[in-house]
Specification:
Chain A: It is a multi-pass membrane protein. The complex is a heterodimer of chains A (231) and B (253). By secondary structure, chain A is mainly α. Chain A has helices spanning 8-40, 48-66, 69-84, 90-115, 119-127, 132-162, 174-185, 189-225. Helices cover 40% and strands 23% of the residues of chain B. Classes of the chains: A mainly alpha (231), B alpha/beta (253). The complex binds adenosine-5'-diphosphate (ADP) and magnesium ion (MG).
Chain lengths: 231, 253
């Protein structure tokens, strides 16, 4: 039996891989969520094609919130290659699965944010002749993110934790390596303790980043809202 | 009389608006000529807001014809866009954008819709702020302004796109009594400057002093229309008389 220490470098490499998977999936899920959330929000004078898109997005959200991300990974990695005779890399399968899974939740977060913007804001935008994209950019975006950011950061943390599911298809990320090390060394609780602490630290980092972002948004909006409670 | 020869800036003929089975506006005719101020009065629920909201396409109409500065509102996107280019609007609840300074509220549409440069838009915006009595308030956020100040910024925002006509939907109804006159004063100035205005209001004194014509609406129709002297002092219809006496009774409580 080898010592746990011998696996330090391998483990660190795997942690880097976990972080890389996380970053890609977080970006993917956030992009999907922002685009789908802004498209699918119910609002005054939404263009007709937004409404058509909403039908599709509603179905997407319903499906991808109801299927476990691990099953999505299996489906993409084994299923797609088997069915279409097309090889997809493990990394791509994991990132795509998490992007689609988390994107469904982020889409709902953003949508709720857009729909929290008071109707009068949309009426004023319309009366000023602003198109839907100007309205999104200049009128809806800030209040939307002010409302949605806390739950979006929550989903970022979920994304990071769910990269551990990639061990299910054998991606060489932190959890997979932990399992390997445990098998090779016989150390169980030490290995999983280190693994747990690693995820904890990464997630605390993201949560911290999130609260910095939230503070920045609330600082820039605090003047906007300082008297809102009195009005 | 000469104005009769001109074409109206805003013309409504037999305009109808339904919400399901509720007929909110039931055949309204209205003509507003350049530099005129028309006041619309009437009890709550009589269709005043609905009428002026059809003029810039915030509500689509189900019948009749609306022409604004030569453009017929036919439900098409382009007609709505063209009309909104010519119409400014001020709401009862101000509806300023809370995440923008007063000046940014005013310059948003000129810059982002009309392609005016930042420099020009801000120079014009500063003039408008001065006009509404808010010189030096350009970097204030809406939350840092009183209701009356917010409404005056909203008026400046409406004017910023250089519209042919300004719509006001009860612009002073949400204000504390002591600032109502500030806002009405600004509107009076605009009328004197020749801005074409349609104003839904319960301020009869303002209507009498400023409006070239007062329209009394009830139950979705125009019951009576006339200048301040004839309509307010010598109303012809029972419903007008009843409405005016109810207003007088409540305002002199
Ligand atoms: N969005 C709406 N949906 C359904 N009914 C409406 C709507 N807006 C207005 N109404 C109805 O239309 C009528 C006229 O309303 P409105 O134009 O707001 O009156 P006013 O501004 O004179 O108080 C009222 O009976 C009101 O209940
Ligand atoms: Mg009204």
């Amino acid at each position: 039996m080898t010592s746990v220490i011998d696996y330090t470098e391998l483990f660190l490499t795997a942690v880097v891989y976990t972080i890389a998977l996380s970053v890609m999936s977080i970006i993917g899920g956030t992009l999907v969520g922002v685009v789908f959330g802004f498209l699918s929000a119910r609002r005054l004078e939404a263009p007709h094609w937004f409404r058509a898109a909403r039908v599709f997005i509603d179905i997407y959200v319903r499906i991808f919130r109801s299927v476990p991300p691990l099953v999505l990974m299996f489906l993409l990695y084994f299923g797609v290659s088997a069915a279409m005779n097309l090889s997809i890399s493990m990394t791509a399968a994991v990132v795509l699965a998490l992007t689609l899974f988390v994107g469904a939740y982020q889409s709902e977060n953003i949508r709720a944010g857009v729909e929290s913007v008071p109707r009068g804001q949309a009426e004023a935008s319309a009366a000023l002749g602003l198109g839907i994209f100007s309205r999104m950019r200049y009128v809806e975006a800030r209040p939307t993110f002010a409302v949605a950011l806390p739950s979006m950061v929550g989903q970022w943390v979920v994304t990071i934790k769910d990269t551990s599911l990639a061990s299910g298809i054998g991606v060489v990320e932190a959890t997979t390596i932990a399992l390997t090390v445990r098998q090779a060394t016989g150390e169980t609780w030490l290995v999983f303790l280190v693994l747990g602490v690693t995820y904890f630290l990464i997630n605390r980092g993201v949560a911290l980043l999130g609260s910095v972002l939230e503070k920045r948004i609330s600082r820039s909006t605090s003047r906007a809202q300082s008297r809102a409670a009195l009005v | 009389m000469s104005e009769m020869l001109k074409t109206p800036v805003v013309s409504l003929k037999g305009v109808i608006k339904k919400y399901g089975s509720v007929v909110a506006v039931n055949g309204v005719d209205l003509e507003v000529f350049e530099s005129q101020t028309v006041a619309i009065i009437g009890p709550s629920g009589s269709g005043k807001s609905t009428v002026i909201r059809t003029i810039n396409g915030l509500e689509s109409h189900d019948g009749g014809e609306i022409v604004v500065n030569g453009v017929t509102l036919d439900g098409s996107k382009s007609s709505i866009r063209d009309v909104r280019n010519d119409v400014g609007m001020v709401f009862q609840q101000f509806n300023l954008f809370p995440y923008m300074s007063a000046l940014d509220n005013i310059t948003l549409a000129p810059r982002r819709r009309q392609g005016v440069s930042r420099l020009d838009a801000e120079a014009h915006g500063m003039e408008l702020l001065e006009k509404v009595g808010l010189k030096g308030f350009e970097s204030r956020y809406p939350s840092e302004l009183s209701g009356g100040q917010q409404q005056r910024v909203a008026i400046a925002r409406g004017l910023a796109t250089k519209p042919k006509v300004m719509l006001f939907d009860e612009p002073t109804s949400a204000l504390d009594p002591e600032v109502v006159q500030d806002v009405l004063g600004v509107m009076k100035d605009l009328a004197h400057d020749g801005v074409t205005m349609i104003v839904v209001t319960h301020e009869l004194t303002f209507a009498a002093q400023v409006a070239n014509s007062i329209v009394f609406m009830d139950a979705g129709v125009v019951v009576e229309q006339g200048d301040g002297d004839s309509l307010l002092r010598n109303p012809q219809h029972k419903r007008t008389i009843r409405f005016l006496s109810s207003l007088n009774a409540s305002s002199f409580d």
